[in-house]
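tool=predict chain=A
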Amino acid sequence: MFADRRMFCAVLTLGGLLACTPALNWREVGLAPHSALALLPCKPDRTTRSVPLGGEPTELTVAGSEAGGATFALMAATLPAGRAPGPVLAGWQQATLAHMQAGGAPARQPFTPPGATPLPEALRVQAEGRRADGRAVSADAVWAARILPSGATELLHAVVYAERPQPEAAQAFFDGIRWP
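tool=predict ok
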């Protein structure tokens, strides 16, 4: 029990340090009209655009910012009832890794934030690759989904791109993702 208490205190201290880092001024953001919430390390820029997800034009809402030498991006889209979210998440992951020219076998682990629907394709993926200009890039990314009472599905993708991995910042970012 003492070890658990020490671990809890260490996590709180780390969280406090990250929250107080001037370059990472965490704030909760939503991606209306989607219901997912997340933390971003500074005031985000926002946009909405139509993208082909799963071969269908889909409105994608994006919030992103640059802080502490990294780019943080949060994206959400809604699939209509009847469209299976798993293949769409898997395709989104493949497209992201291909775009960054990921090499080797990316590390993968399940990712199910609070309020999300558990799916095999809901993952955290860590990969190394190249930017369009050829510079090295590290990505720590997550994909998740929530099936709504209407039968529609909200999809969420969050990613941290940096020259070198930033595991503490990525963990703080991903820990802030939730559906109310």
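The CA atoms of residues 36 and 150 lie 16 Å apart. The chain has three helices and nine strands.
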